[in-house]
Specification:
Pfam families: YusW
Order of helices and strands: HHEEEEHHEE
Number of helices: 4
Shape: rod-shaped
Protein name: YusW-like protein
Largest sheet: 6 strands, antiparallel
Strand order of the largest sheet: 4-3-2-1-5-6
Strand content: 25-35%
Organism: Sporosarcina psychrophila
């Protein structure tokens, strides 16, 4: 009798374990794991425009002069805290902080520069964004998230 009692307990326990831990439901054939999100090592620190976590750089300092006079000054820096200033003297616009950040974000999304973008292409994209055909001075400094620096100085 004791043997029968022990065997019965084992069978019932086994049935309960299989029922509770088994995968016999209607979704048994579907994988239980969602697609993993892959994050590049370069994107961990500051993100990139593709991930939506940033623009791929921590600072952006642009100065464009037209006919020897200041025309555009744009400063974006997120190394310590988010800070932005934007001045377009051609359109009489002067913005600071969040409003400047919003305006510069539009440009960053449109021009999409990376550390591998050729310098002339960077100049062309920025001039096109501002609707400029020529300049007397173009000065751009960009610190990318991976530590790469872009420094363009062109005086005509």
């Amino acid at each position: 009798m004791r043997k029968l009692n022990a065997v019965g307990t084992i069978v019932i326990t086994g049935a309960l374990l299989m029922g509770g831990c088994g995968n016999f439901g209607k979704n048994a054939d579907k994988p239980n794991r969602e697609e993993a999100i892959i994050i590049n090592e370069d994107e961990k620190a500051g993100g990139s425009i593709e991930t939506g976590n940033g623009f791929g750089f921590s600072s952006f300092d642009l100065e464009i002069d037209v006919d020897g006079k200041d025309a555009i000054d744009a400063d974006y820096d997120v190394t310590e805290k988010a800070d932005a200033d934007y001045e377009n003297k051609l359109k009489n616009i002067k913005l600071k902080d969040n409003k400047a950040m919003d305006e510069l974000s539009k440009m960053f999304i449109e021009i999409r520069i990376t550390k591998d973008t050729p310098q002339q292409e960077v100049i062309d994209k920025i001039l096109q964004w501002y609707g400029l055909d020529t300049y007397s001075k173009f000065d751009l400094d960009v610190d990318f998230d991976d530590g790469t620096l872009l420094d363009i100085e062109d005086v005509k």
